[in-house]
Write a structure and sequence with these properties.
The chain has 560 residues and is α+β, with helices and mostly antiparallel strands. 31% of the residues lie in helices and 30% in strands. The strands form 14 sheets. The protein has a 4-stranded antiparallel β-sheet with strand order 22-30-29-23. Strands 31, 32, 34 and 35 form a 4-stranded antiparallel β-sheet that branches. Strands 2-1-6 form a 3-stranded mixed β-sheet, covered by helices on one side. Helix 5 (128-142) crosses helix 6, helix 9 (256-266) crosses helix 10 (299-310) and helix 12 packs across helix 14 (411-425).
Length: 560
Amino acid sequence: MREQEGAGRAALRSGVALGVLAAVYLGLAVFLGRHVPAGTTVDGVPVGGMTPSQAAVTLKHALATKASMPVHLQVGDEVRDLDPSAAGLSLDVDATLADLTGFSLDPRDIWQHLTGNSAEPLRIRTDRAKLKDALTDLSRGVDQPVKEGSISFAGAKVSTVMSVQGRALNVDETARAVQQAWPRQAVIRAVVDVVQPRLGPAQLADVVRTFATPALSAPVTVKAGARTVTLSPAQFSAALGVRAADNGQLSPVVDGAKVLAALRAADPQVEQAPVDASVAIRAGRPVVVPAVPGRRVDPAVLGPAFLRALTAPVRTAVVASSSAAPKVSTEAVKALGITSRISTFTTQFPFNPPRTTNITVAARTLDGTIVRSGETFSLNGLLGQRTPAKGYRQAPVINGGRLEKDYGGGVSQVSTTLFNAVFFSGAKIIEHTPHSFYIARYPEGREATVSWPGVDNTWQNDTGHAIYIQAQVTSSSITVSFYGTKVWDVEAVKGPRRNVKQPRTIVDDKPGCVPQSPTPGFDVTVTRVFKRGGATVRTSQFSTHYIPEDDVRCTHPQAG
């Protein structure tokens, strides 16, 4: 009985002891699960025995400076920096510590926590897209394009430039290297790919030997139609070149347009420009000058033919010249209906060299103008602004009832003569402006001044046929004649002067004064009579008001 009681007490004591041991083991497991294993370091920072929060604070404090420092990328002999934040790089302390703590009853885990001494890696968080974007931006300063070699022929000399390899940042591989090394490694080597050129030294040398040197070894003769021209290497070398295909193969090329330019310079007759049909006035009658076809050489044909000749035993390129049609055919000019003179008018002018120069310049521009049926003619549109660059000089013009000097003075005489040619041709008068006061060399009520850009002389050719304008100037007169198909016989009937007003006398002592002779002001009406076969078909009237031309007497020594 006592033996049974003793055994029971012993079992009880053993159970209590085992329970205590189990409780101690459990407590130790709980304690150790809440702390980092002893002797543990993360990226060289000791965190053993710390709670996760303590370890997190320690790591962030110890690594904050390192994590904020630029990422140094070694690119060849240079170092380029990346901003970690902009590149999507950050420390992931929570993930780093996650596997170092945690409750476990496994004796091996308990032993590991007690003995520790492990060096754990630091985990980072990476935004892969931002990292690649940052590296792509960096690559713009890193990448160097390939410089393909070239062969040039300037100055009839062969010059060879050898190819230079390029480089390109490998963004994917460099991103992987950054992820593996940051922030532990101070300098990270970027992955840079070498880009080889397509053209190697052997290829360039082969083209020099087989094409470039032979091409410049002697002149080349070109037979273009009936013309034969020999060009020296100095004359044609600018047309030579070498082109690289996508597969890297080199092939010689010849610019046919540049060869043609060299031919034209050596022999202007190698081509002949076509001559448009035109109208000429001979013995007072219009005649059609026939069009003349030209000859041209097609540069698209010349280039390949010249290329073959450069390395041929007989250095001769044979190309056919083709006919070049004129833009204006003889038939087109005949169809204009310019068959006879339909009107002409002449005005006289006094001796005034600058004024005569202006008349001559304007008449030269007007001469030969063709106004097609239905077109509207503008004298300002034809002449443009009267400037010294066009040859115009300063001469008297009317401004506010007084004479002064300006470029183009005298062009109004061209306008008046033209107006009368229009008047008697029967064409439709659209816009004309008489001078402010009457000038005796012009017919009363049948004259038209012009000034740039506002006052114009415009008319429409409604005769049904084209009108050719001839303008001729002598030392004292200008004649404007119209040639076309006569439709009307036009007469001018002038009425009497009305509302006559006498001029004043003005004494002007200014240096810019221009003297004037007195002329009364008046009103007058001119009737335009359209006849056909001697019968009047219709009429139109033009009423003109002239102010008096004052008697201006200039007293300044520099006047006039």
